[in-house]
Amino acid sequence: MVASWKEWENVAIFIRSIGRQVPLDWVAKEVKDKCKLEYEPETFAMAEDHYLLRFREAVDCKAALRGGPWFVVGQLLAMERRTYSGSPLSSRISPSSATSAAGWGTEDRTEVEERDQLTAKVDWP
Predict the structure, then answer these.
(1) Region Disordered: start and end of each range (predicted)?
(2) Which structural domain range is residue 107 located in?
């Protein structure tokens, strides 16, 4: 699985809507328009209300990560590039990632749960 993920590592990003869910095709269209892509990025629905966008080129992926913060129909989107750490969805995208292009890195489950407990206490708009 590591070899398979390496092919996607620099051309795919995970997305989560902070608040109401936004249709994935709307997200893909917004990314295509804002990044001036000549193609539709591939879209995949993942577990726990996460999505994945796959680009043809790493430069397009980087442009999407740097192009934020992202809003689609008024909803803030968290976008993160992720490196393989053993379990593709072992951590969730946090609201704090919506303004950051930093990757998930290799957070372990304890760190993720602690962060989720802290962010649950914040009164998000």
Answers:
(1) 85-125
(2) 2-121
Q: Residue 81: which of 63, 101, 98 has the closest Cα?
A: 101
CATH number at residue 75: 3.30.70.330
Number of domains in the chain: 1
Round to whole Å and give the CA distance between 101 and 108: 19
pLDDT, tens only, 46-81: 877 788 888 988 888 888 888 878 888 888 888 887
Question: How far is 55 from 73, CA to CA, in rounded Å?
Answer: 22
CB atoms within 10 A of CB 25: 10
What's the chain's Rg over C-alpha atoms? 14
**Token pair in block for residue 107:** 């957070």
